Amino acid sequence: MAKATKKQALGRGLSALLKDPDNDIQSVQDKDADKVIGNIVELDIDFIEVNPFQPRTNFSEESLRELASSVKELGIIQPITVRKLGFNQYQLVSGERRYRASKLIGLETIPAYIRIANDQESLEMALVENIQRQDLDPIEIALSYQRLIDEINLTQEQMSDRVGKKRSTIANYLRLLKLDPIIQTGMRDGFISMGHGRALITVEDQTAQLDIYEKILSNQLSVRNTEELVRNYGETKSVEPKPKKQSETVPTYIKEGIGAFSEYFGHKIDVKVSKNGKGKITIPFHSEEDFNRITKLVKGAK
Fold first, then answer.
1. Is 96 tagged catalytic?
2. pLDDT tens-place string over residues 32-48
3. What distance in Å separates the CA atoms of residue 53 and residue 242, rounded to the nearest whole number?
4. Which residue among the candidates 73, 96, 214, 256 is catalytic per the annotation?
5. What DSSP string runs through the chain?
6. Confidence class of residue 280 from pLDDT cuts 50, 70 and 90?
7. Can you give the residue ranges of the ParB-like N-terminal domain (predicted)?
8. Residues of 63-94 as b/e, b for ≥16 C-beta within 10 angstroms?
9. 2-117: what CATH class?
10. Cα separations (Å) of 20 from 23, 94, 111, 112?
11. CA-CA distance, 268 to 260, in Å (whole number)?
12. How far apart are CA 261 and CA 269, in angstroms?
C-alpha cells in the first residue's frame, strides 16, 4: 500500500511539472524529459484526444459499462499510453477502452505513460500494440496488418519481427480481406471463426462463398464440415444450385441495390419479384442475438 501511495504522489508531482508552460517538454532532449517519459503521470482527461489512427472500430457498449464499473470500484489498473502533441495536449496511443470507461464515470484524471512520437511512429505503435491484444477479432487484426503495409511501408518480414508473429501467420490474416464484406462482418460479429474464413478463401466465386456462408450459419457447421463442403464445391463447381424460374428473375435496379442491403444487415438478403413488379425481401437470422442485432439496425439504434 505504501508503494502505491508513493507512486501516486510521484504521478501528481510529474503532472504539476507538465503544467509549467515555461518548461514545456516537446522532445527527449528537453529539460526534465527523462523525469516524465517512461513514468506514470496523472493527466487531466480533458487534455487527451482520441487517436485517429486507432485500428479498432468496434467498442461494445455493454463491455464498456462493465469496464467502467470495474474502474469505479478498483481504479485504472493498467495506465493508458499517450503521445505529447503540445502544451497540455495529448493523443491516445493505446488504452482507448480504459479512456472511454473513465470518461463514462466522470473521472477528471487518468494515469498515463507519455511518449514522444511523430504521426508515423504513433500509428505504428497503435497498430502493433493492438495486434498484440487478445480480444481483437481476426478482421481487425488483418486490417491492422494491411495498414502497416500501406501506411508504414513495412514488409511481411519486417512485421514478423515487430509483432513477433510468423510470416505465414501474417499472410493468413491478410488473405481474410479477400472474403466478401458480408462474410467479414460475420467474422467480426463472431458468427464464424477464422478457421471458417480460411476455408472459404479457397472459393474464388463470391456468390458461392456467400452460399456456403449461409449453410455454415443455418446448419451450424464446424470448421471441418466447412472444409469438406468447400472440397465438394471444388469437385463439382457447384453448391446445390437451384435453377431460378423465369418469374423469379431479379430486375437490374434490385441487383444494383441489394448489395447495400446485404452488407448493412450482415447477411445475404433474398429478393423475389413477381411479374407485376411487386416483391418480397427476406432477411435471415441465425440466433436470438442475431435477431436483436438486426432489430436494432432496422430501428436505427446505435
1. yes
2. 666 666 678 888 999 99
3. 45
4. 96
5. -HHHHHHHHHHHHHHHHHT-GGG---STTSTTHHHHTTSEEEEEGGGEE--TT-------HHHHHHHHHHHHHH--SS-EEEEEEETTEEEEEE-HHHHHHHHHTT-SEEEEEEE---HHHHHHHHHHHHHT-SS--HHHHHHHHHHHHHHS---HHHHHHHHT--HHHHHHHHHGGGS-HHHHHHHHTTSS-HHHHHHHHT---HHHHHHHHHHHHHHT--HHHHHHHHHHHHHHS-SS--PPPGGGPPPHHHHHHHHHHHHHHTS--EEEE-TTS-EEEE----SHHHHHHHHHHHHT--
6. confident
7. 41-131
8. ebeebbeebeeeebeebbbbbbeeeeebbbbb
9. alpha beta
10. 5, 25, 19, 18
11. 10
12. 7
Q: Which three cell numbers stand for residue 110?
A: 487518468
Task: At 26, list the grid cell.
Answer: 516537446
Q: How far apart are CA 230 and CA 137, in angstroms?
A: 23
d(CA 211, CA 20): 63
Copy the grid coordinates of residue 179. 472474403
Contact partners, residue 95, CB within 8 Å, separation at least 6? 78, 79, 80, 81, 112
The domain segmentation of the chain, as residue ranges, is: 2-117, 137-176, 246-299
Give the mean pLDDT of 142-168.
82
Amino acid (one-letter) located at 111: P
Model confidence, pTM: 0.49
